[in-house]
Amino acid sequence: MTHSDPTTPEFLMLGTCDYPEHVPSDRWAPYARMQAELGLRFVRVAEFAWSRLEPRPGEFDWAWLDDAIAAYAAEGLRVVMCTPTPTPPAWLIRAHPEILAFDEGGRVREFGSRRHYDFASPVFREHSRRISRAVAERYGQHPAVVGWQTDNEFGCHGTSRSYGGASEAAFPAWLQARHGTLDALNEAWGNVFWSMEYTDWAQVKAPVLTVTEPNPSHVLDYHRFASDLIASFQAEQVELLRELAPGRFVTHNFMIFESGFDHYDVARGLDFATWDNYPTGMLEFFAPPGVGEDLKTHYARTGHPDLVAFNHDVYRSLMLGKDGLGRAGAGTPNGFWVMEQQCGQVNWAPYNPLPADGAVALWTAQAWAHGADVVSYFRWRAATMAQEVMHSGLLRHDETPDRGFAEVAGLDLTQFPVGPVPARVALLHDYESLWIFDQQRHAAGLSYWAQTVTYYMALRSLGVDVQITHPDADLSGFAAVVAPAITLVPAERAARWEAAAQGGVPFVFGPRTAFRTPGGATWPGGQFGPLSEMTGARLLQYDSLRPGVMQGVTGAFGSVDASLWAESYRLTGAQTLATYAGGPLDGQSAVIRHGNATVIGAHSLDLIRAVLSEVLGGAGVPLLDLPEGVRVSRRADRTLVQNWHPHAVTWGGLELGPVSSVVLGGDWSPTEGKGEQGE
User: Which domain of life does the UniProt lineage start with (predicted)?
Assistant: First the structure.
């Protein structure tokens, strides 16, 4: 492997997640030597080590971790230390069972796995601060420790919300602070409906175990409340680490398509975001409509390129424009990390196939092309005990290098220079819209993620680099803005969008845009509420389509079939670009435009792609016509062309081997033939 000087982050850097507490101490030095020889520069440790660090209340054992860190340091490896709070030990839980969370069925989620705590528990928060302070006092200024990860994977296993215990008890006070009076709460939630009005704050419980669907406004506020708990928990740890670990970065490893909290709020105070990338498992759980069993089988050994890319862009964009608060000098890259990168088969999906030859190298290259400065492989050695024995590592159970090890060894990191991703198109993403959209989907097969990712897939199929952006961010610098599913649009947000559009930025909106008020109700004047003037239209009808039922759409973008959802509009100034053909919406407006605002009412990848092609082309965004499974990403004046197919592909003058990528010069274009390969 070729790598740069570790003090000068000019190129992508690599790391691994290691667990010295899982192996005999005589393995620590040999493992560190192997890691350094492989070209790894960072090692993450100790996120699940609370029971070894504090085996009994107040009794700490640092010797083993001191020795492990010394072994890493002797080989020049840099350590990312973790606060060990995701796994409170048995002695703490048995002494304080009130720490445990409740599921949506009203049952206590027991000890014996991980993430078994309620963010609202004052007892747990006290012990979280105590253990985090102890670890930070020990290692906060250790010369080998260059950064910190808070906790681990907030929200994993559905743990972002507890529906009883400490959380339920704390909810009324949060509501009182938000709404002020019970009259205001009842008005905001529309509690006159079904006689749901409250006369005492203590009457309000978690929105679960209701006879039928709970009030969506109640659900929305509970999600906001739970998200605020995670944000405050995170802020406590960040504040402590800033105090005790000066000059070190602080991050958190976020999750694949995690929906349980507002990541923009929770990421405040971090230096950069990291996330955990498991492409094959992601495909099984998060493939949008249209990616059926045939495509799942086709991409089973690589994952789908657009699902992986979407998450890269979420976490790259989460912290853009933010000054670093505590980086460890020039040797610590500034961009986001993939803290856990799959390097073999996983153990947690319905099907867990062995990745294709070349997949680990392809995933690494793609991460770099979307802005990652570090890719860290999970895990070093496959676990020989407990829940993850079926999960792979860079080493097999018997310590021999696995296939992923060989692919990492073959990487030439000088192909992957650090630098900006030239994204000129913003795709808007909002967690509150996600929560209220999914609470009342109205079409079983269509979720917020499915609708949003469909628009993202269309953009990627056109060869467009994307910045995923909060809807309240400054949008004036973008060539175009795409808002697939922002269903919750306050008046202030609408005014900012309208000003950007009047300034020349074209917008493309998807179905159910601005359907909701901030409280979760509909606007009294109907959709589009405060966006009505910008869109020049009002909602006329919406139709939820059963699986297999198609709705024709015809007009300026040809004739296509839509599925799952179709909505039509009553025009108050907009013009119709496409209409529905057949069905109950026959002849009604399906795609409309008013000034710089275009609205697509039907769910159809082909229609979305055609509209985006026309809008982006008019905005001067260069476009490609990429075949399925071939993707192009750009970074630092380089172009990465990727083939995610299990077979070779010829495209744009390039011969692309199965499951492979090639780095080309930034000015490369398929219309110019083969181009020159980057060095």
Answer: Bacteria
